[in-house]
Design a protein that fits this description.
The chain is mainly α and 99 residues long. The protein has a domain at 8-63. 60% of the residues lie in helices and 0% in strands. It has 6 helices and no strands. It has helices at 8-19, 24-31, 35-45, 50-61, 64-75, 91-94.
Amino acid sequence: MRKSKFSESQIVGILKEAESGVPVADLLRRHAISKATFFKWRSKYAGATVNDVKRLRSSESSTPLKSARRMLVGKATTPITTPAKQSSAPDSARTTPSR
């Protein structure tokens, strides 16, 4: 995934400027972002503060699923193999019908 040019705290700052009454067109021009990017940010970070975003980031990094995956990957000693590929066509589709 591509890394953003803006940090989450910068994004929240830009959105706060828009909430304070600065015209969106001026913000887009000044920060060199597209209208689609601005509205995507607004839908994702609407009403959030910098502390909210940091708290969200820290809670995402400490989810049990991620830590469980790390433990499983670290303890895996045997390689994982996939079963042989089987044909999904029924037996009747493999033979040509006789006339």
